[in-house]
Specification:
With 347 residues, the chain is α/β, with parallel strands linked by helices. Among the domains are: 60 residues, 2-Layer Sandwich (Dna Ligase, domain 1), CATH 3.30.1490.300; 133 residues, ATPase, nucleotide binding domain (Nucleotidyltransferase, domain 5). It has 10 helices and 16 strands. A 6-stranded mixed sheet has the order 6-3-2-1-7-11. Helix 1 packs across helix 3, helix 5 packs across helix 6 and helix 5 packs antiparallel against helix 7. The longest helix has 28 residues. The two termini are 13 Å apart.
Length: 347
């Protein structure tokens, strides 16, 4: 299966073969010209088709062979929640879901694609039905389908980005995993996913990412963004270094984490003590910032913080040296890996 992740700045592709023993065959990457994609919405189908075709030629260690793909729907343009409904017969759920979703999304239901599936909690609640609901605007999905069709690809599925990230960095059998907060740090945005007992219970996207940190460091230190990016990668966010550069990087990192704190409070308000956050897992290319795990651990004392392993569900995933790319490079492909791994759920 081929996973395609089109973000605001680049196209990332991964091909994974095999269901019982999935093996990473190829990865491809290509930058996107400016303004072709804005906040997850394709602005020019023809230019995006050309960019995708170019990306398919920039692969390592071999070229992609398949043409059946799963593509991601950006988190910035989706609504994902577990909704609690009164106990009711199955044939009444669809109408109840539509009514409930209207209370949460700021646009007309006629403009969205809506899907839901029942959630079977470990704690039996006979008075309520729980459903996992996903909604995405048609203005996001329709151009994406046009791009994939124009590229000569066969679409097996479109998938919400959160589902792909979870599939990439959590073990395949994750039904019993409780209270994991995944913070997926990208270049232009940070996606926050709350996963509990086999289900994505909550997602949101913060419009702040690694590029914003770079720009702020450049502004604070009055240096070029390219130099700021180099300094960020070298110095990191550790509080052991008190140079002007280190202090500036740490300050902008703390500003980002403060946005994550707000989401954590929202999750606590929604779920209470019944679903506490028990662990924090970082993923995405901007999670490569040196020292960022320690900064998260300082802000969230008592909660284990670790980097997600994008190789965990791949053949040879325990041996990074056996992979065709480094763990740091693989962090940029977390979503693409998860999309391509969708096939293992039917194994």
């Amino acid at each position: 299966m081929v996973g395609i992740d089109i973000s605001d700045k680049s196209i990332k592709i991964a091909e994974i073969a095999g269901k019982r023993h999935p093996q990473l065959k190829a990865v491809c990457w290509s930058p996107l010209p400016p303004n072709i994609m804005r906040r997850g919405v394709i602005q020019d189908v023809n230019l995006t088709v050309a960019a995708l075709k170019e990306a398919m030629t920039k692969c390592s260690p071999v070229q992609v062979e398949g043409n059946v793909v799963v593509a991601s729907i950006p988190e910035t343009q989706t609504f994902v929640r577990v909704l609690e409904l009164p106990a009711m017969p199955d044939h009444e759920i669809d109408e109840a879901v539509q009514w409930a979703v209207r209370q949460h999304i700021p646009f007309d239901l006629d403009r969205v694609y809506l899907d839901w599936q029942p959630v079977y909690d470990l704690n039996v609640d006979t008075k309520h039905r729980h459903v996992l609901v996903g909604a995405v605007q048609k203005d996001v999905v329709d151009p994406l389908l046009a791009v994939l069709d124009g590229s000569g690809l066969k679409v097996a599925a479109l998938e919400l980005e959160a589902q792909a990230v979870v599939r990439s960095i959590l073990p395949k059998d994750s039904r019993d995993i409780e209270g994991v907060l995944i913070v997926d740090l990208g270049a232009t945005s940070t996606n926050i996913i709350f996963f509990d007992q086999g289900v994505v219970r909550f997602t949101t996207s913060v419009q702040l990412g690694g590029d914003d940190l770079t720009r702020q460091v450049a502004h604070t230190l009055n240096i070029q963004p390219s130099i700021a990016a180099e300094q960020k990668a070298l110095v990191g966010a550790s509080n052991q270094n008190q140079s002007d550069t280190a202090v500036a990087i740490r300050e902008v990192t703390l500003a980002l984490i403060s946005r994550v704190e707000k989401v954590v409070r929202e999750i606590a308000s929604q779920f209470g003590e019944s679903r506490p956050i028990r662990a924090i897992m970082l993923s995405g290319g901007s999670a490569n910032l040196p020292g960022i795990v320690n900064v998260f651990a300082e802000i969230f004392p008592g909660i284990p913080v670790e980097m997600g392993n994008p190789f965990i569900n791949l053949l040879g995933g325990g041996d990074v040296k056996a992979m065709p790319l480094s763990a740091a490079d693989a962090s940029h492909f977390v979503t693409a890996f998860g999309l391509a791994l969708r096939q293992i759920e039917t194994a």
